[in-house]
Write a structure and sequence with these properties.
With 351 residues, the chain is an alpha+beta fold. The protein is 42% helix and 26% strand. The strands form five sheets. A five-stranded mixed sheet has the order 3-2-1-9-10, sandwiched between helices. It is flat and about 60 Å long. It starts with a helix and ends with a helix.
Length: 351
Amino acid sequence: MKMFSSLKNRLASAFCKMFGFWSHDIGIDLGTANTLVFVKDKGIVLREPSVVAIYSSSHRVRAVGAEAKRMLGRTPGNIIALRPMKEGVIADFEVTEAMLRYFINKVSRSMKFVPPRIIIAVPSGITEVEKRAVKEAAVHAGARDVLLIQEPMSAAIGVGLPVDEPSANMIVDIGGGTTEVAILSLNGIVFSRSVRIGGDEMDRSIINYVKREYNLIIGERTAEEVKIKIGSAYPLDNELSMSIKGRDSLAGLPKTIVITSQEVRDAMKDEIASIVNVIKNALEQCPPELSSDLVDRGIVLSGGSSMVRNLDMLISAETGLPAIVSEDPLSAVANGTGIVLQDLSLWLENS
């Protein structure tokens, strides 16, 4: 009987190894603004906007990713271009599932024999219901198995912070829909706070400012372009300006105005202040022994919205700690999932 049990275990082990050999592990940064996919041993193989265009009558998918983003604000009546992720969580389950299926199939064309195992980074503040929705969407999209990792942990690993050491590391990941603030030590999160404020909120503030001050209606794409080109969180040595086009809300005709970086800074000040307040709150909650580590190590910023000009300078001025933007902030979370994929067993032990 023992011999039979041993043989069965060896066969099961061999089967799992063979199963894993033909499968490819995938890490996904399922962001509000962009989705990045990391394939084990290959690196980041896909970065696409988290946008889907569907036919309004049948809900059939028309386009996904970059092609769909180009349609935002430009579609005819029978096509809707939308973002299925809102504030870091799934807002439209069916469309998110379709988007995930598209991305998984795109990177798995050469490995369809066995469905992939997937690790997905999610905001630290999401509910159990929201976690289950992410897992179900991935399974329905073709995943064999799904594991979740908290975004701040993945970002910290991705930027190279020594999270396994008995000392404090602080990461602030500012994405399109959420800002994740976390203090980490010994492969765990000592304190974390997730607020649903990010680049999308900044874009909306720019849209509202331009409408209020200039009676000009602009779209999301234009607001994002303004933020990237001249947006800042702290005064610049040489203030910038750019012309933008939109529709006059009174006359209903096309109109062009010139907006300055100082105006954009004023438009985004509430969102920036909220992010700074969350960072301060995290520092107040940090144990004294770990606080002393942060005096030397400082705060590391990641995520696409951390690239707003002089945001690191503002955070440093407000907290008194050094703040630096990571080398590749857009890829931090995805790179973190890739590093975790190298030793999933270690992650499972610590999760």
